[in-house]
Design brief:
Blueprint (H helix, E strand, L loop, with lengths): L16 H9 L2 H8 L3 H14 L10 H13 L4 H8 L3 H22 L15 H9 L1
Length: about 140
Amino acid sequence: MVPPQVNPTYRHPKATGQQWVDNLLHDHSRCFENFRMQPKNFQRLHAILSRGFGLASTREVEYIKALRMFLWAAGTAQSQRQMHERFMRGLGTCSKIFARVLNALVHFANDVIRPKDYTYSVVPQELLEYTLFLMAA
């Protein structure tokens, strides 16, 4: 009887969080899978948030690294514990990073995403069916 063939274990060197992200940013499809955006859009968002929406470096982490960590966690539905494991940062640091980047994104969204009509005097056609439901209630 011939013993079963077993493939040898492939051991690849463990990349740091920074090395892993750098590799992602050079591969368009992997970048999109993990950050939900292309590398050029990542760079644009980074520039926008750092110039006008309060995303700044701290003692714990540079702001570009914070954005990378946030986008990975938010884009792939990861927990802060998984951020801690992937990027080798403390849980408290991961929590602060997430909150800081989220705060900058909220300020950005408030500036960019706004209704055309601030008074809401006209209901958009797409929402009319919901207004009928509210009137009946």
